Amino acid sequence: MRKVRLTMLGATRELDLPVPGGQGSLVNVLPAARKLTHEMMSLSTRREAERGLKVSCKAACGACCRQLVPISVVEAKSLAAVVAKMPKPRRDAVLRRFEVALAKLEASGLLPPISSEPRTALVSAEEGDEAAAWDDVSHRYFALQIACPFLEKESCSIYEDRPVICREYLVTSDPALCGSIDGGARSVPRPTFPSRGLAVAAERLDGVPPSSIPLTLALEWAEARGHELAATHTGTEMMNAFLDSLVWGEELDDVE
Ligand code: SF4
To answer: Domain residue spans in the chain?
Structure first.
């Protein structure tokens, strides 16, 4: 365990994060990233409740699961392992949904046709400006209303294994506002983005660019490039890479 002191939103708490044992790949740092995210969002949610803002996310609401979801390559590899372990009928259904999603993206022009090079990004009509390009692809993606391949009956079918970015996102506004990307949904503040921390750690520790990809490309990436995350590191190296990759509004102090 690694004890860290988390100071954010005016509150300080110490928490134990599980340090991966022995040597392993960066995928082993996911339990720590998930715990940190859980603690962070619990604190932020309580602060919002004190202001009279209650989380309105409910079971069987998958509105945000039709957004473009960027995940770290660490999680792409983890999701591929989750799918590989599914019983065959379920796995086949999930793989089919990935295929359908990618076909829709190709048909829309957001994704180039498959070639010898693994695809890692969507195609923006906006050239040069990164923010404008993100805005363009995220709007066009949402307009297609492609459900995440893991969404079943409007619920996440891999809840325990869902990416960190899915754990970071909660809203306190009318759920109807989530039906539009510019609907004015009010999200619970996130003092840092552990999902980005994972991506930056993958780039720093394993030199994998780009370290963040759309969830819909996760399986394709893992099959073609998952081996790039095969390098092993000590638990301390991985934890340091992850914690040092977080950009906080406030400080995160090691106490042990
Ligand atoms: S992984 Fe689960 S929570 Fe995340 S977008 Fe997909 S269905 Fe939604």
So the answer is: 2-254
Of all atoms in ligand 1, which is nearest to the CA of residue 162?
A: 1
**Is there an atom of ligand 1 within 6 Å of 147 CB?**
no
Strand-pairing partners, residue 4, are 15, 254
Q: Is 98 in the pocket of ligand 1 (CB under 6 A)?
A: no
**Which pLDDT tens digit goes with each residue over 164-203?**
999 999 999 999 999 998 888 999 999 899 999 999 999 9
Per-residue pLDDT of 104-123, as tens digits, reads: 999 999 999 988 788 999 99
| Among 209, 202, 85, 104, CA closest to 149 | 104
Q: What spacing in Å lies between the alpha carbon of 2 and ligand 1's midpoint?
A: 29
What confidence tens digit (pLDDT) does each residue in 48-106 have? Answer: 999 999 999 998 999 999 999 999 999 999 999 999 999 999 999 999 999 999 999 99
